[in-house]
């Protein structure tokens, strides 16, 4: 039994010694790996060496062109339509002063003739009364002379009878009756003359009333013919020949394309920072925007891929919306300037959706970079001693494909313009310069 245990122990020890010897032999036979030499591959990027510049800020906004003036026309008198302008249809152009439509004028012409006759009748009555007044005034002079003669004759006969006992009482009485009759005729005529001014005033009032009715009849007669108040573009027609129309119902809408306007909403922060105000107030007691510089604004139709532009003028501030925090300005364009010198180009017309650029204040000492060179977190990659460094920047304004940085950079800094995704900070860079200087746009 003891011999078996001893044999097992010897066998296990032999196996362990064999394994240990094999391991030592393998370690001695293994060759160490070739030692690698350390090297860093640079990141190839495009870059630009920035310099500060002064640039005129352009505030960009969008709006739809519209005619400044639009007029809704409704008949002012009722009647049947007997005539319509041949171009009175949507999109048609009716020159200023030409007839749009005519309402049957016969009834209104008859009323006008009647009113004119009444006026003439009243005028004749005034003339007749004035003539009669003049005649009675002359007649009064004659009656007074006759009265005076009758009184003188009465006084003479009475004196002869009473003093000289010449004549008779019947002659004196007859002379007195003649004098009294003459005096009575003078009194009656004087009372009639006193009433003449009142009668003349009444006739004049009747004449004024007749003239007022005549003027109303003239106006109503003129209203049967409706003319274009300006060179008008027709935008709405609800009218047919022989149709009966009533006053107050809009039948035609006209647009005056001689002046176009575009309402442009702007972010109130951009407006506050960049809009130019010269400080001249229209009224000191009116709390509204005034003194806005009427600068020239380039206008482009958004559908025009060739980039044709028109020039409008910043006119005024229309409104402020506290909900959306937008300030709406009006840009005005003369109709004559809406055409292009290129006959192949369409004119700027009402309804076109446009992009408007409004020149603002000057941004001083800014660095222009491609938009993609600045992250949404307002950081940029800068090459410092050929190493990548991330720096925070302050974006003052973005325009098109460029952004203008007012803080975070120094003159001569090398900004990486290649789009990078999560690069390692302090990575080695191999920068290829796009340009040495920033150009003004």
Walk me through what this model shows.
The strands form three sheets. The protein has a six-stranded antiparallel barrel with strand order 2-9-12-11-10-13. A five-stranded mixed beta sheet has the order 15-14-18-1-19, with no helix packed on it. The protein has four helices and 19 strands. The longest helix has 59 residues. Helix 2 packs antiparallel against helix 3. It is of the alpha+beta class and 441 residues long. The C terminus is likely disordered. It has three domains: 55 residues, RNA polymerase II/Efflux pump adaptor protein, barrel-sandwich hybrid domain (OB fold (Dihydrolipoamide Acetyltransferase, E2P)), CATH 2.40.50.100; 116 residues; 179 residues, no CATH class.
Helix segment count? 4
Content-based structural category: alpha+beta
Low-confidence parts:
436-441
Q: Number of domains in the coordinates?
A: 3
- Largest sheet: number of strands, sense, barrel closure: 6 strands, antiparallel, barrel
Provide the helix percentage.
25-40%
Give the mean pLDDT: 87
Distance between the termini: 106 Å
Specify the overall morphology: rod-shaped
Order of helices and strands: HEEEEEHHEEEEHEEEEEEEEEE
The total beta strand count reads: 19
Largest sheet strand order: 2-9-12-11-10-13
Radius of gyration: 53 Å
Strand content: 25-35%
